[in-house]
Amino acid sequence: MGSYYLKRVISSIVTILLIATLTFTMMHSIPGGPFTRERPVPAEILRSLNEKYNLDAPLYVQYFDYMKGLVTFDLGPSYSKIGTSVNDLLVAGFPTSAKIGLMASVLIIILGIPVGIISALKQNKPIDYFVMFMATLGVTVPSFVVATLIIYFFAGKLGWIPSFGLTSPLGYIGPVIALTGYSLSFVARLTRSSMLEVLRQDYIRTARANGLKEFSVIGKHAVKNALIPVVTYIGPMIAAILTGSFVVEKIFAVPGMGRYYVESVTNRDYTTIMGMTVFYAAFYIVMVLFVDIAYGFIDPRIRLGKEK
Amino acid sequence: MKDNRFEFLESNIEDEEITRPSLTYWQDAWRRLKKHKLAMIGIVLIVFIVLFGTVGPYLTPYSYSDQSNDFKNLPPRLDVFEVEEGINLYLSNDYNMFLVLENGKMDRKLKLDHRDAINKVYTYLLDAGNSEEVVILDFSYNTLKDKQGYDYNFTIEYKGEIFKYTTGSKFNMSFPFGTDDLGRDILTRVMYGARISLLIAVIATMVNLFIGVIYGSISGFEGGRVDNIMMRIVDIINSIPLMLYVILLMVWFRKSDGLTNIIIALSSVFWVGMARLVRGQMLSLKEQEFVLAARVIGVPKHKIILRHLIPNAIGPIIVAMTMMIPTAVFTEAFLSFIGLGVSAPQASWGTLANNALSGLITYPYQLFFPALAIAITMLAFNFLGDGLRDALDPRLRKG
């Protein structure tokens, strides 16, 4: 049992290191250095810049330096924002993204799962069709469209919420809804189909035949099992949402991680791109790891299966 | 014997035939697919979008990069002042005056003769035939201090007559979807965007299909250590959020044009799901007797995979492929939206949406059409994918 978890933890760490290596290689194989501009930087400035950021050193030295930094959670300086380190950007951006992301995740869970269950219980009734219609719409309409529509109607036309920034609590409404859209629809659809699957199982019929109340059949027997695939999806989803959706943060001008990431991409700020990618990936992998571990507790079959 | 209770039946060929004509796998699938209403809607929509993107650009008089200094930011529906029989004037948000013909065609932009920015009065010249008429726009209402509390914001004076409200509205027949901030026809650009977006999606999907099927079938068929190593690689790729990976790749290839980059970036990532699916199919298929039979008579491995295994797994593969296309459209739109997509003047739906963002409050229609196109495409492929899943693989049919 313990050895399985140990294996998972080790393989996660290896994966993170591999990703860091991959990003490092990619960023360093781009032709031209980080200070290549349209107007060439004077040679001596370039030299001193290279010296400052240790870019003259052989690649393997830079690599080990970077890895050493990574292990001690030091992601290096930002090349385009002078005087700030990537860590500073993370510290500045992550809490904001996490706050919005957490709200969105909570909303998805408390709304998506019940809606999916209700829809499954009322299969082929009007309410089911309505939910499925909305869910299909939610999955197909891109988040940037949802976000801009929110801005257009609720911020522009009606003026109920501010169109950018998080200065007032109302400012959270727009980004949270825009972030929720896709995943909420997905969770509702997933819950519904998995619930329908479970409701057809023999043990549900047995439970009903034994005269259990409908409420306890659904609540105790069906929902518990139906949620297993949903949990698989929710883990990585929370990671993706918590670290912030780039687009939503861009549209609502939220000072979160996503915005810094997009900015660093447009500015070709290689250390920031590298650092943030590794951070995102690590966060994601850790969340998946948590889900896998939690899984063993939720579903004993998986624990047994994995042990071999 | 005379018994009326029995009578001879006429020999009827049709009655004797108890079996239906046997259907091939594809005929059967098509029969099931035809019953799936949403899937049929999806097919119709997809055909429409493909025609829209391929034939469409030839039918409009403009090209996707044609700019026009006069006709900037024109909406699809024009609120006009009919100042005289047959003379419709349209006033744009940036105080340009246009002459609109009776049939809704944009005729020309009126010449701005005099601009009095302090009193907020502009004078335009309208040369109607031989005479030249003056149109005076006064937009000082509700902005200047002594002109507060009106329920209209401007007036137009023409031949001594004052118009306070628009008299009607016409569909813009010259630019049915309006024009953007450089005076480019949005209809043409959305059509062109369909071409680019679908091109990217289809090529990326094909490449993904190719890599995924080959990778997955080798991994599944070989099994053992090969399978183990190959699947660990897949696991690692899969544990990176794909969007990050695509963004990294896009940053990485910064040399050539955006179109190639985006295709390469998308094709190098999304095969992972396909590989897993195919591997799963292979694992169960390879244990079956027909594979054993093929092995016994000495069919080489690659032929077993190509001739026997892949055709048997084709159903789920096609379904996954149909679902991959909207994902690719979506990812492409997303990348273009954050500025990593195709480069101007080429336009995909994502770029169009991104360009529209800056003028959203004033010119919402510029976002509306590309967004609608994306949503319709996603819906169509999702419908078709659901239908195909039911048709090709009835075991997976959902409740």
Query: What is the number of beta strands of chain A?
Result: 0
> Unreliable runs of chain A, pLDDT <50, ≥5 residues?
304-308
How many separate helices of chain A? 13
Determine the fraction of residues in helical runs of chain A and give it as a percent range: over 70%
Intertermini distance of chain A:
10 Å
Give me the number of helical elements of chain B: 14
Derived from helix and strand composition plus strand pairing, the structural class of chain B reads alpha+beta
In whole angstroms, the N-to-C terminal distance of chain B is: 59 Å
What integer is the average pLDDT of chain B? 78
Number of strands of chain B: 10
**Overall morphology of chain B:** elongated
The chain-level structural class of chain A is mainly alpha
Oligomer: heterodimer
- Biggest interface and which pair forms it? A-B, 47 and 37 residues
**Regions with little confidence, pLDDT below 50 for 5+ residues of chain B:** none
Q: Biggest sheet of chain B, open or closed, and with what strands and sense?
A: 5 strands, antiparallel
